[in-house]
Design brief:
The strands form four sheets. A seven-stranded parallel beta sheet has the order 3-2-1-4-5-6-11, sandwiched between helices. It is globular and about 55 Å long. Helix 1 links the parallel strand 1 and strand 2. The protein folds into two domains: 199 residues, 3-Layer(aba) Sandwich (Rossmann fold), CATH 3.40.50.720; 102 residues, Alpha-Beta Complex (UDP-galactose 4-epimerase, domain 1), CATH 3.90.25. Helix 6 crosses helix 10. By secondary structure, it is an alpha/beta fold. It has ten helices and 14 strands.
Length: 329
């Protein structure tokens, strides 16, 4: 297929672009590079620099008859920032998605895979998290993703759009061949922050809360390897049903605590990785992990990376050879 990928220069987007190309699909990446990296875009893909707010640029990049499907990753994802700047998140994550959907409708493009999030569930009372649990996001970031999911469902009935929303848990790791990794500014994710300690770029790593009702007192999260995420996107793309809006959790089905992730990083890097134990952060649930059975049953997806150690190993291979992230030109 010929696939139009928004946000394909970002962390998850770039891994998905590589996966699509490896599977024989043709890809055009549309990214404004506000957070993505041109160096992260596979050379086999066509690259167009542009913003979804620029409708004229979007119309030129997405002409009629040139594409068979789209993948949409272009979004802001800083939860804390979304609380302080909600309109910025609604403008970029929701209004710009309207621009994309309007263009898709205009050119008759009816296949879309959407990058969603487990944040649509808020703080669920039951574990593991199934797709049928109530959707009660507790921050604007999660609310914007849920708003898009609802738009996709409405578009399915209105103009036969077929879509899959993939609700990620904690994306982690790096490409197995060492070509791609995680490079955010600012960096907010646990594993890259831990590895910066091993690289001598930080003195320690903070552990927010050690008195949770978990086996070791620290938060538990579901760390899904980014290449497993990419395979889920490929399978979703190849199995879309016209006029149907579906949503799937993408996780391993089990959780790993913050302290367990730190221990894995110590084993992988050989570094002591000092910790600073501090108070809980507001809004951090004790545990979040997926029940991914629906994705397995519907698309035949299975995670290759099932434990945290190989996830950290893949991340360390990339960070240790790219201590300053992607090269800039």
């Amino acid at each position: 297929m010929r696939v139009f990928v928004t946000g394909g220069a970002g962390y998850v987007g770039s891994h998905c672009v590589k996966c699509l190309l490896d599977a024989g699909h043709a890809v055009t990446v549309f990214d404004n590079l506000s957070y993505g990296h041109r160096a992260a875009v596979d050379r086999r893909a066509e690259f167009v620099q542009g913003d979804l707010s620029d409708v004229a640029r979007l119309e030129k990049a997405l002409p009629a008859g040139q594409f068979d499907a789209a993948m949409h990753f272009a979004a802001f994802l800083n939860v804390g920032e979304s609380v302080h700047e909600p309109l910025m998140y609604y403008r970029n994550n929701v209004i710009n998605t309207v621009h994309l959907l309007e263009r898709m409708q205009a050119v008759g493009l009816k296949r879309l895979v959407f990058s969603s999030t487990c944040a649509v569930y808020g703080e669920p009372e039951d574990l593991p998290i199934t797709e049928d649990l109530p959707k009660s996001p507790i921050n604007p970031y999660g609310a914007t993703k849920l708003a898009v999911e609802r738009m996709l469902a409405d578009c399915a009935g209105a103009w036969d759009l077929g879509s899959v929303a993939l609700r990620y848990f904690n994306a982690a790791g790096a490409a197995d061949d060492g070509t791609l990794g995680e490079d955010h500014d600012p960096e907010l994710h646990l594993i890259p922050l831990i590895l910066r300690v091993a690289l001598g770029q930080r003195e320690n790593i903070s552990v927010f809360g050690t008195d949770y009702p978990t086996p070791d007192g620290s938060c538990i999260r579901d760390y899904i390897h980014v290449e497993d995420l990419a395979q889920a996107h490929r399978l979703a793309l190849e199995n879309l049903s016209p006029g149907v809006a579906e949503a799937f959790n993408v996780g391993t089905g089990s959780g790993t605590s913050v302290l367990e992730v730190i221990e894995a990083a110590r084993a992988v890097t050989g570094h002591a990785i000092p910790t600073v134990l501090t108070e809980r952060r507001a809004g951090d649930p004790p545990a979040l992990y997926a029940y991914p059975a629906r994705l397995r049953e519907r698309l035949g997806w299975e995670p290759h990376y099932r434990t945290i150690l190989p996830v950290v190993e893949s991340a360390w291979r990339w960070h240790s050879t790219h201590p300053n992230g992607f090269a800039t030109t």
